[in-house]
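queue> holo job accepted (magnesium ion)
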Amino acid sequence: MDWQDDRCTIAEIKERLKHFNQERDWEQYHGPRNLAMALSVEAGELLELFLWCKDDGPQPAVASREERVAEEAADVLICLLNFCTQSKIDLSAAVAKKIEKNAQKYPVEKVFGRMEKHDEYEDDSSVQR
Ligand SMILES: [Mg+2]
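queue> job finished
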């Protein structure tokens, strides 16, 4: 398989992870609670690489961290896909459903260029944009 975003599917990655986990007998540890915690830990590891970066400076602040950013991003996805496998969530279907829900919640004509949450924006023009 060609491991590029535009050449492999989520199902293929999930299958590869399933094989990886079965080879190590790790599925016994992969309950949804543990995987949700692991996902949060990995997201924290990703976030840590950007800790103390200046808003107008390079991100991450230390160039040698760039490879680790990709590794932690991969860890986040691995945990998420393992979570979805164990929780029997079809991630593509869930994403499509959520995008549709967000489109209803955030209609373009109301929120274009605005950053407020759905219950914070008002129709008056005094809201800072
Ligand atoms: Mg990690």
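queue> The first helix runs from residue 10 to 23.
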